[in-house]
Design brief:
276 residues, alpha/beta, Rossmann fold, 9-stranded mixed β-sheet, 9 strands, globular, AB_hydrolase_1, hydrolase activity, Alpha/beta hydrolase, Epox_hydrolase-like
């Protein structure tokens, strides 16, 4: 089943509704499609400033990874990185997209790397924006705790106590850019309580980030872009990824935090277009 509203679409994959946005549908098939993959606790909303810039020249697809954004929050779905990568690959197959430029932010960088590992023929080039890296799987004690009844309520209370404002302050360098639209956009998906049950499963299913030996086997050309003031994924992670990804280039941005698509959309657009 497919649902369409302007540039927004919902399609069922693996029994779960997947929300995605498609822009510049009339773009030439001679150009690869730019595919945007968001980070943890985020959604396609995080690319709202970048999409209009890229869509002037390229077809753009942005995906809400389940259980985030407007995608489903199923109690049966397997929320592993590899399976999330498989969902994106299946979506692209349904859309008959055969060549892509992957742009992954934060956790979306790991999903992008998994896509390149599973389907190297699909990915022409990759751009990683402050990508997560070298995180191990959740500790066994936390995974076992997730089976305790009402664990999802504990998770909800913890995130509520932290608050969206605290999170935004942590991910952007210039706090003056945080406005009501930004706060509402990042907070809205969490009004649905089902996300906390799904995130409980996410804790159980998430494998560790790709290890060095698997990163070193990726032959895709990759551009790494990092904010020097990133408090979430420090520049040292980007430098390590640069060493392990044999066909990579690293660019750093001054006075920039973790949320690159929001903080420096014009600069990111120029770097992406120059790279591809």
């Amino acid at each position: 089943m497919t649902f369409e509203k302007n540039n927004e679409f919902t399609i069922t994959i693996q029994g779960i509704p997947i929300h995605y946005e498609l822009y510049h549908k009339e773009a030439s098939n001679l150009k690869p499609t730019i595919v945007l993959i968001h980070g943890f606790l985020s959604s396609t909303f995080s690319f709202r400033r970048l999409v209009p810039l890229l869509a002037k020249e390229y077809r753009v697809v942005a995906v809400d990874l389940p259980p985030f954004g407007k995608s489903g929050k199923s109690k049966d779905f397997i929320y592993s990185y590899q399976n999330l990568a498989s969902v994106v690959i299946e979506l692209l197959s349904i859309l008959d997209i055969k060549e892509i430029i992957l742009v992954g932010h934060s956790m979306g960088g790991q999903i992008s790397l998994n896509i390149a590992k599973l389907r190297p023929d699909l990915v022409r080039r990759m751009v990683l924006l402050c990508s997560s890296g070298y995180l191990e799987r959740a500790k066994q004690a936390l995974i076992l705790s997730s089976y305790i009844p009402f664990f999802s309520l504990v998770l909800k209370r913890k995130l509520a106590k932290q608050g969206v404002m605290h999170s935004l302050i942590n991910v952007v360098y210039d706090h003056s850019m945080i406005d009501d639209e930004m706060k509402t956009g990042y907070e809205e998906p969490f009004y649905n309580d089902e996300i906390f049950t799904a995130m409980t499963r996410f804790i159980r299913h998430r494998e560790g980030d790709l290890p060095a030996n698997e990163l070193q086997s990726i032959d895709t050309k990759i551009l790494l872009i990092w904010g020097r003031e990133d408090k979430v994924v420090p520049l040292s992670v980007g430098e390590r990824l640069h060493r392990d990804l044999k066909y990579s280039e690293l660019i750093t941005l001054e006075k920039t935090g973790h949320l690159l698509p929001e903080e420096r959309p014009h600069h990111i657009k120029e770097q992406i277009l120059q790279f591809i």
